[in-house]
Task: structure prediction
Amino acid sequence: MSTKNSSRFMPLIIAISVVAGILIGTFYAKHYGGTKLGIINGSSNKLNALLRVIDDQYVDTVNMTDLVEKAMPQILAELDPHSTYIPAQKLEEVNSELEGSFSGIGVQFTIQDDTIHINSVIQGGPSEKVGLMAGDRIVMVNDSLFVGKGLTNEKAMRNLKGPKGTQVKLGIKRASEKELLDFTITRGDIPQNTIDVAYMIDEQFGYVQISKFGRTTHVELLNAIAQLTHQNCKGLIIDLRDNTGGYMEAATRMVNEFLPEGRLIVYTQGRKYPRMEEYANGTGSCQKMPLVVLMNEGSASASEIFAGAIQDNDRGTIVGLRSFGKGLVQQPIDFSDGSAIRLTIARYYTPSGRCIQRPYANGKDSEYEMDWLNRYEHGEFFSKDSIKQDESVKYYTTLGRPVYGGGGIMPDVFVPQDTTGISSYLIEVRNKGLILQYSFHYSDNNRTKLSELEDENDMLKYLRRQGIVEQFIRYADTKGVKRRNLLIHKSYKLLEKNLYGNIIYNILGKEAYIRYINQSDSTVKKALEILENDEAFPQAPEASAEETKDEGTEKRTAQAIGPVESAERCFRYATV
Result:
């Protein structure tokens, strides 16, 4: 070959050599290069590369799907306590709690003695249409035995819930029948109300208990207000105790019913989330109605948005205990496999400008969730003086009342937990679940007679003649809790209250139970007292000379943020 021809092919030879070198180098780096991954640039590439390396080279076979599912919650836990991962199999259940309905058979049940007991049948639902009754036991599902120690609420719901229009076959044991009864039920939409009860608590004032803020909550509230107004309601108690929140939009729409036009309700802001403000539009139906809002340590998120707007605008009185302290906003983000995350994208602020999010350390969710125990141990549930407010996050309402950020909403009127009647005997029978167990068995064994009673007052009259507490004491003795007369005498009224309440719930439902519990609820009594004394609308504090001097300069008020004008509540049944 001539020199001229050699020169012509030299670039091609060099190119082929370079490509071959790269291929050979990559082969040896992949198989013999140890753990160094020099080609990885950036954190996101690191995660993807790590998964690829594990899948390709790990000594044992790894289920990569399971690995990712386990890693997702741990990654999000490093951000904040409220950014969460929801697996695909749980997403529908999580969403249905707030969407107002789900698809199922329409019964409320509990598991007793390793068997599903139907406590109530939802009116108009699929189970009522085929003839299921309260007191029935579900022992077969789709021709398979469905009892035993492995039976859980989760397993029951997984088998009984399902897409609308699908069918499930049940084998039912009914006390009045010797043979099993077979029912084929076509699943349908089951409504889920977020307002547990709305009723006139006396001749003048109404009471509304809201369990969460869902898609239908605002409409439910309007219906409740219309019902109470028709009964000449002169003032309202909104009970948000143990309401863990829900949709922010539901909370702002509800607040709008009580505020005059132009009042700031809430605003949100985040690193990539521009400030968004919500104002009352003046169309509210209860703008001048006296209002008291009940809260406790279980009231969070949307509950705190509602209470914060009412408090900062001096629109009503907050009564109870300091709220949970969640001031972070989550955005749902869905994945193609049906799973999703709830990612914190912003903080929300009450009208005075305060963020009520309590402190947290990234990656320490367990400590954050157990904050209620710290509050209990420091005496916060029993004394307002045990709560130390941070003066560095002090703000003021429209009337100049001081309010604080950084740890929930402090009530205007503090009502401590009542520990009268608590004893070691009561604690033991509660912790062992004996009160619930006995109440269920008594209800089940006497269902025919109890169902003849019209309301909770008729049932109370009947139960007080039956010696329920003494029967329970003998039952507890058979379960290993010995009779202790002095302690029983101390806790007698609480034992009676718990037993009667559970039996009322079992037979008459949640509304009757709440009405009964409210009769002796100290927080509800305080709310009624405030309404009766015409003290629901807060008054401006008397300004000291120093405060007068600083007014309009150092005070951070709602006016600076937006335009303004001159415990037994634990329900223990699952629904499918």
Summary: The longest helix spans residues 3-32. Residues 28-41, 548-571 have pLDDT under 50 and may be disordered. Residues 14 and 20 are 10 Å apart (CA to CA).
